[in-house]
Amino acid sequence: MLRYLPLLLVPLSLGMQALGAGPVWVFLTGAAAVAVLADWVRRGTEGLAAHAGPAIGGLLNVSFGSVAELILALFVLTSGQAAVVQAQLTGSILATTLLGLGLAMLVGGLGRDRQCFNRANAGLLSTLLTLLMIALLLPAVFDLTERTTVSPSAARITDEEVSLGLAAVLLALYAANLVYTLVTHRDVFSREEEAGEGGAQWSVARSLAVMVAGTAIIAWEAELVSGALEATAQTLGLSTVFLGVILLAVVGTAADLFAAVVFARQDRMSLAFSICIGSAIQVALVLAPLLVIISWFLGTPMTLVFTSPLGLFAIAGAAFVVRAVAADGESTWFEGLVLVGVYIMLAIGFFFVGPA
Amino acid sequence: MLRYLPLLLVPLSLGMQALGAGPVWVFLTGAAAVAVLADWVRRGTEGLAAHAGPAIGGLLNVSFGSVAELILALFVLTSGQAAVVQAQLTGSILATTLLGLGLAMLVGGLGRDRQCFNRANAGLLSTLLTLLMIALLLPAVFDLTERTTVSPSAARITDEEVSLGLAAVLLALYAANLVYTLVTHRDVFSREEEAGEGGAQWSVARSLAVMVAGTAIIAWEAELVSGALEATAQTLGLSTVFLGVILLAVVGTAADLFAAVVFARQDRMSLAFSICIGSAIQVALVLAPLLVIISWFLGTPMTLVFTSPLGLFAIAGAAFVVRAVAADGESTWFEGLVLVGVYIMLAIGFFFVGPA
Amino acid sequence: MLRYLPLLLVPLSLGMQALGAGPVWVFLTGAAAVAVLADWVRRGTEGLAAHAGPAIGGLLNVSFGSVAELILALFVLTSGQAAVVQAQLTGSILATTLLGLGLAMLVGGLGRDRQCFNRANAGLLSTLLTLLMIALLLPAVFDLTERTTVSPSAARITDEEVSLGLAAVLLALYAANLVYTLVTHRDVFSREEEAGEGGAQWSVARSLAVMVAGTAIIAWEAELVSGALEATAQTLGLSTVFLGVILLAVVGTAADLFAAVVFARQDRMSLAFSICIGSAIQVALVLAPLLVIISWFLGTPMTLVFTSPLGLFAIAGAAFVVRAVAADGESTWFEGLVLVGVYIMLAIGFFFVGPA
Fold this sequence. Notes:
Three copies of one chain form a homotrimer.
Chain A: H1 9-18, H2 23-51, H3 54-64, H4 67-78, H5 82-109, E1 115-116, H6 119-147, H7 152-184, H8 186-189, H9 204-236, H10 240-265, H11 269-298, H12 309-326, E2 330-331, H13 333-352
Antiparallel strand pairs in A: 1-2
């Protein structure tokens, strides 16, 4: 019964909106409801995956893993706030790599001398993280180079072309990565089974029903959240960028963060590492290019030109510090604390940027 | 007989020029002829090296390895296009580290589970690559710092002084590296013998004749190529920077790229790795400082201040992604694909910069 | 007797000042006296530490390790030259990581095939170095982001707030690191005993007396040095930033540099590595945040916004090249030379910045 309790957030947030409560309450309850629903969709996906073979199952798991974040981002995007979507993408990467992995290492390492994780997997994920750092920084560097020679409007159009080109390359690399981890090198990357208490034993029908219904309600809630975003920011005296980079990002990745900490405490650090870094890679390798392409079809193009120096620095910093921590295939509580410390330092930076 | 066939490109390109063909044809056939001749000069060098001891032989091999690139760069430089030379240097580093190593890992890894390479050597080369990244980025950072306080013309003069100073340090480190790999630590770095089908059995006279004649014809062709460069760029609607960073660079390193892929397919990944990264190091540690010093004597000083943010970012990105891929001393086809993917993304960036 | 000889620098520098000698002589003798006194204070600390348990002893050693640098920085700061203090902090990091470690590897590696050091320790220190690179670069990136939207004076105030916030996080991480290395993971990090010829056998009274007297005289000398700084720079035709980043920094870290080279020559590379990188970490994790907080109380706030692009680049470059060299847990003379080469290249850059 207890596991159904968080679902009460859905009627609560809808009630808030209907009764004309303040935008802060609508925003917070709606965001929490999205986080809860994302976990249910994940369980439905796992249920369906359990009935498919391992290859198709793995494909399902990675494809629907970010559906909540995608829907949330699309609603924020269509309400004309591309900068907030970029902040949310940046924040998702920071939340999973620094906060999630850091908390997992910290909580998992307390009372233990050290925890080990699969080095082959950690190496692949680190390499992909470096690739993604380059992919996400490149458009901003291109834009900087371009603006020294051409007019801003001309630069804007080539920014879109470059972003579409990079999005295509990223999606192609993602497809190749699926072939790599699910087909040619399946033995190396066969993930430790997650003992799912929820979805793994569900029937196909139940899994599908939960996935469809959950996704639909997420869309409903996402509309509330994106609508209340600006008023919430004004009321709280925060910038919309800070809300996006910290709050929306933690909401979108809450299920992953929670799972990683639980697994780390059970001394299953390889799994916690895969969940956190895998989620960050999912964001940059799939979510970002999909948003570029979908937004282009919607007529409100979002480029990959991340304009905030602080955001670009944060992505690069996260990639470097994760590489440093992961290099030896071992973790301790202090390494976790360093990751959390870097997250807090970046959050301080984002807090002070914008309206004081 | 077949190996003499590509030499027909030399009369072909000279004929194109004599008959007044379009500059695009002169440029393309001339560039291809340079690539073919570079391979012959390399064979002549190997032949001479086989008659010397291992230390002198190694010295010969590394010294004449980039003679074609040096001549090509000097002709482009004296025609007043320092930016194209910088683009060519940047492009050579990208072509060998990302495209060459990536293709080698991709082609070598297909159908194989993994390929191993010498970690001691990979570690040294990675360290040097990091050093060179710092050396090539430093003058641009210096220039940026300097311009906040002094006039552009004063900055220009100190840029030249700084570049000369750095060039001296780089050449000194290169000399020390030769002592290190050929004298004090020869056992560690004794390269797997390349079973040369061409030059290794040549006589001293034949080797010398091929080296001298080849170098002379390269100079002739290089003059054609640099002369046709600007008209070619206009005809194709490309920027001269794009031609330099992609086309001239691939021409100058074609022999290395080809050799690396062949050796990787034979599962000799250590050798492929040495060729690719060694070639990039050669460019930055020898070619770039030599061009700075020679150009200063010629009265058309080229500084090490790489002004394109995209070029600087590309060099740093290549260094990081190679380090990430090389860290574990193993490679798979997917790691190769990631390198090629990064190269394509950077090429997209360079394509869209400049005249649309 | 011989060990008391350098102490003659103290009366010498005070005499220079009293007799009205040129500022260059006051500056040079005073700076040398600070370096000598710093070594005595260090011996006093070791003497006291030997009487305490290992945990308290370790705490004492790391806490008083930078007292000379702190006093010197405070005097320069109160004479209104925050830029010189930032240069000194930058220079201390460069001097220990590049010059000190490089000379140690170079001198220690001559005539030896390779030297090994403790990989667990090297890994932790590398991770901390990456963290500190992020912490020191973040405020400058924040400042850059902030200035695109608000006025310079508003940016200045938030710069101070951000710096104070980061300083608090850094000091908290430092405290956690002490718990980590001195309590929970003491076995892993128990340092090889330094066979102290000086302080280790001193009585508590003698140790305390040396510490107090030494620190007091350092303060006196530091006032002379900071007072003569500007006149010295003008006389020598150098910038005060160059004096801070090279001369003051080498003075402040001279004892560490010397110890590291001596231990490396004795083939105790783990200890040399710990001294050099530990000293750099001490500067960024303790000294910099302390200066931010103390300067705020003094009413002459120093922020962590390092404004020199060259300085920021130097810190990042040092972190990367140390990581590259330390990755394999081994060192050779050539790796040492590369570190020294990077230091020389950066010094060339700092030399040419500013008044020609």
